[in-house]
Design brief:
Two copies of one chain form a homodimer.
Chain A lengths: L13 H4 L5 E4 L2 H6 L6 E6 L32 H18 E11 L4 H10 L3 E10 L15 E8 L10 H7 L8 E4 L23 H11 L5 E4 L6 H8 L3 E6 L2 H13 L5 H4 L13 H6 L8 E4 L5 E4 L5 E3 L2 E3 L1 H9 L6 H4 E5 L2 E4 L1 H14 L6
Parallel strand pairs in A: 1-8, 2-3, 2-7, 4-6, 7-8
Antiparallel strand pairs in A: 3-5, 4-5, 9-10, 9-13, 10-11, 11-12, 13-14
The structure holds a DNA duplex (19 and 19 nucleotides).
Chain lengths: ~375, ~375
DNA sequence: ACCTAAAGTGAATCTACAG
DNA sequence: CCTGTAGATTCACTTTAGG
């Protein structure tokens, strides 16, 4: 396995240097991939059409119409056509993956079983299936099925013996000391993050949240890695990759999406090296992980936190750890070190500035807890 | 869709009466299923071998053993054998399912994608994929992957137009009044529920928790339904089915498991009817034509009805239709037309005035329903 | 400006039955 | 098979409107 310290063991070949880095390539993803050199990218992310096969309109109980995914790119004549499409892009993708490369694919029950089986047949080796549990899904309006509250992602290496990248400690750190599980609770993409067109409508019907890609890229790539997105859309993968200091290549067929993504990417700023460094040591601790505050964008990597008396400050890092005065670690550890105290509750010690005021980060934890309580009701039967 | 009130609409055929109810049948599940009459069971639950790593034993439908192979080139052989086994039991299961029957299959990423694709290919219609999120999973000891903290279930009807059973209100009630989502947080089977053998070791490696089957059977069967478990194991499905007043059939190849399950089932007691009753929605109520309200003199022809905000009004006619603003038709049609909405539930939209208050006409329907129930209930004289 | 109420919205395979 | 109609059905969150 490649780890944080050994990731440079695999030298970039000549072919890799010729890659069209940090660009959006126009065209069909299979054709474009076939024009790229083999064994040249570290990670592929694919959010292919789901083949939803929707029939009539759907109305909410208040009679408003649900804005469905009826785009032409989601139309297939049947399972056979969809399977062939899937097999072809999976094969092309595997060719350009480095031997130790990996792939992430996201889908729903409409397509994910077919994609998963084709992926296994193509020689990929599944590492985990990961559930994106949506904290705020669209309900089932007709009361005819369960609320479709999740999507499924498959994480697979190029082959069974690939030394894939897995930043175990960074993910554990994002989860405040507890192993990251295969189910990730994250909100869908709404609000200011959701891109709008000229008319104020959503620019893309299926824009993914940056928090999802943040966790994927932190966990399965290193800074400087090349991340390829086969169905780039509005460029969420590119935006997060750029922010996190990874190189990206996007492939997108629709010009409208390419234009939106290009503008979006111009606004993204790369984090500095300090914010990008991730924890390699060990830690442990309790309930709501501070990493979720970062993943959810409540605090930005690179943002500064202050003690209430402003005597100490520290910088937020991408994996949910802090760095202040050369001390790295959890919000608790850094707070304790700077005070030369044996311990410190980072949640109440650290504050961020909003509109001139100092706000304790514990308010952000309370927000997350409120959401978790709403979405998470374990019941022993 | 079958609801609580209509589930008896589908008569049991002669064949159904010949089913070996509440028994554990010995043998290979495909052969046993082929000996059962077609279109005879309401629900099938299947917890098939997960094909873990293809390293353990895998048997073909003819009971011959597949040689486990680690060689890369032989992987396809492994998948092919597993796929054939899957297709055969799925086909046999579909034959004995009633037209409105459904199936649940549980698996992990090792097999669930292949099972799901085969299931779609066989003509089943996926209703939901459901995530069993384990509240207490085994951690990943080597730190090389994410903690595998969930399993995936697929819920599918026999065909696209099956009127499958879905007890929406009962599940909503289980979830404290909020509609049930596709992710279920439940603990794994441990403690006193976990069956032990003579030596005190776990009797079965993958015993499922009763809470899981409880939710499945409450949500997708009615009392008296026939539930078939193809890989019965220690009989969790049978135990929960018996407790919930469903009939079960179990198929199990291993004698040791059949013995354990038999003992287990003897200890299970069937709940009484009062405990079995579940919440039902309006769909289960008998239909009442608005004309009956007029016939019974609860509203007079010529009387005016109003929307709650009094923006629209309409006049009752002798035949139980309405006329408002030159639009004539049913209470639903006139309500929809006046609001320019695609549809409208006239029962809740229209109100009449009594003693200065606005009363929804649905209260009149409820009165009629109450009288109908009183008539149906024989009174001891 | 600030608080509250109302409206809007999200990858959705979303009805049952009489005639 | 088809068509037409009765009539049942929503959660979490954001944005906008109104006071």
């Amino acid at each position: 396995m490649k780890t944080e310290s050994t990731r440079r063991a695999e030298p970039r070949g000549l072919a890799s240097r010729e890659l069209p880095l940090n660009q959006i390539l126009a065209g069909d993803c299979i054709e474009v991939m076939n024009s790229l050199p083999e064994s040249s990218v570290d990670l592929i992310f694919a959010d292919p059409p789901y083949n939803l096969q929707l029939k009539g309109d759907l109305h909410r109980p208040d009679n408003s119409k649900v804005d469905a995914v009826d785009d032409h790119w989601d139309q297939f004549t049947g399972f056979a056509a969809y399977d062939q499409f899937t097999r072809e892009w999976l094969a092309a993708a595997r060719r350009i993956l480095k031997p130790n490369g990996a792939i992430w694919v996201i889908g729903s029950y409409h397509n994910i079983f077919r994609v998963g089986a084709s992926l296994q047949d193509a020689g990929y080796w599944i590492l985990n299936d990961v559930i994106w549990r949506k904290s705020n899904p669209m309900p089932n309006f007709r009361g005819k099925r369960l609320t479709n509250a999740h999507e499924t992602m498959i994480w697979a290496s190029k082959s069974e013996n690939s030394k894939y990248t897995f930043n175990y400690e960074a993910l554990k750190s994002l989860n405040e000391g507890i192993q990251m599980r295969s189910d990730w609770v994250l909100p869908i993409c709404t609000g200011g993050e959701r891109l709008k067109d000229d008319k104020g409508d959503k620019a893309h019907p299926t824009q993914k949240p940056e928090s999802l890609l943040h966790r994927i890229l932190i966990g399965s790539t290193n800074p400087g890695d090349v991340v390829l997105d086969l169905f780039f859309g509005t460029g969420t993968t590119g935006a997060v990759a750029k922010m996190l200091g990874r190189d990206f290549i996007g492939i997108e067929r629709e010009e409208a999406y390419r234009e939106i993504a290009t503008k979006r990417l111009e606004r993204v700023r790369r984090l500095d090296a300090g914010a990008l460094a991730t924890t390699t040591g060990k830690r442990a601790e309790p309930r709501v992980p501070f990493g979720q505050v970062v993943e959810r964008g409540m605090l930005r990597p690179g943002e500064e936190l202050y003690s209430l008396d402003s005597r100490h400050k520290a910088k937020v890092r991408a994996d949910g750890s802090l760095i202040g005065n050369d001390v790295k670690g959890s919000i608790h550890q850094v707070g304790a070190a700077l005070q030369r105290a044996p311990s410190c509750n980072g949640w109440t010690y650290w504050h961020f500035r909003r509109e001139g005021r100092m706000v304790p980060i514990d308010t952000l934890r309370q927000q997350i807890r409120a959401e978790m309580q709403a979405e998470d009701t374990p019941r022993p039967n």
